[in-house]
Design a protein that fits this description.
Blueprint: H1 2-19, E1 22-28, E2 31-32, E3 36-38, E4 44-45, H2 47-58, E5 61-67, H3 70-78, E6 84-90, H4 93-96, E7 99-101, E8 106-115, E9 130-134, H5 138-145, H6 147-150, E10 154-158, H7 161-170, E11 175-179, H8 180-187, E12 195-212, H9 218-230, H10 233-242
Helix pairs in contact: 2-9
Family: Belongs to the bacterial solute-binding protein 3 family.
Domain Solute-binding protein family 3/N-terminal: 23-245
Pfam family, one: SBP_bac_3
Length: 263
């Protein structure tokens, strides 16, 4: 009889523990493959989706991912409506004033996407051309900071990658400047024939998870990322999504502290 009561109590306690598992609210731009995107079943997939799910598992939680416009990601963390944001986000000193970031796990580069035969082979060739990028993104800031130097004719800001690439295909813009990994992925899709990467721009920008300023979960997230880098999990995820192994000294495999600057 006592054994039965003990077993029942154990089941009840286990049920309470399962119910009490913390749910992390994660914001994400839902059209950013291979970083994050919704599959045909409406579920999120991607490199950073795998990262955030692994982090959640390691800290005894589960991730609940919601799709947001890119600009809304920053409002969501500032207002603490989400616990974290994933969307190939670059650590910048300006962003660090209002947000916190985990350690980076990827060093990015920009790509200049054009229609085949556009006569663009370098950044210098953007002079006099119509260019576009995603609103409030690192590529947009990069372009605006170099407007005088590059001398492009006009700039168009987009809320979505899909709209930007639609305008590129239709000829409304001559070049789309964006994360090179995302552009390569998009241009490999069957419906994206006739588009290619005309130039690569090494920038050294560092991608990380963005969180509310001073988040109480920041150190736990960062520790989980360090563990993933040390035990090889991060490298396996990188190879899964980018089909090559990360370099031995890259940000993908090097544990780092929580950043206090973009340097």
């Amino acid at each position: 009889m006592l054994t039965g009561l003990a077993a029942a109590a154990l089941v009840a306690v286990s049920g309470l523990a399962a119910t009490a598992q913390e749910t992390l609210k994660i914001g994400s731009y839902p059209a950013n493959p291979p970083w994050e995107y919704k599959n045909e079943d409406g579920k999120f997939e991607g490199f950073e989706v795998d990262i955030i799910n692994e982090i959640a598992s390691r800290i005894g939680a589960e991730a609940e991912i919601s799709g947001l416009d890119f600009r809304a990601l920053f409002v969501a963390t500032a207002s603490r409506r989400v616990d974290a944001v994933i969307s190939s986000l670059t650590i910048t000193n300006e962003r660090l004033e209002a947000q916190s970031f985990t350690q980076p796990y990827f060093s990015g580069a920009l790509g200049v996407g054009t229609k085949d035969g556009a006569g663009i082979a370098s950044v210098a060739d953007l002079g006099g051309k119509r260019v576009g990028s995603i609103a409030t993104s690192f590529p947009e800031n990069w372009l605006k900071e170099r407007e005088g130097e590059i001398g492009y004719a006009s700039y168009s800001s987009y809320d979505s990658t899909a709209n930007m690439l639609t305008d590129l295909r239709s000829g409304r813009i001559d070049a789309a400047v964006n994360d090179i990994v995302g552009l390569r992925y998009a241009f490999n899709q069957e419906h994206m024939t006739g588009l290619s990467i005309a130039a690569e721009i090494p920038t050294g920008d560092k991608f990380a998870i963005m969180m509310p300023k001073g988040s109480e979960r920041l150190e736990a997230f960062n520790d989980a990322i360090s563990e993933m880098k040390t035990d090889g999990t991060m490298a396996k995820l990188y190879e899964k999504w980018f089909h090559v192994a990360p370099k031995a000294d890259s940000l993908t495999v090097t544990p780092l502290p929580v950043p206090t600057s973009a340097d």
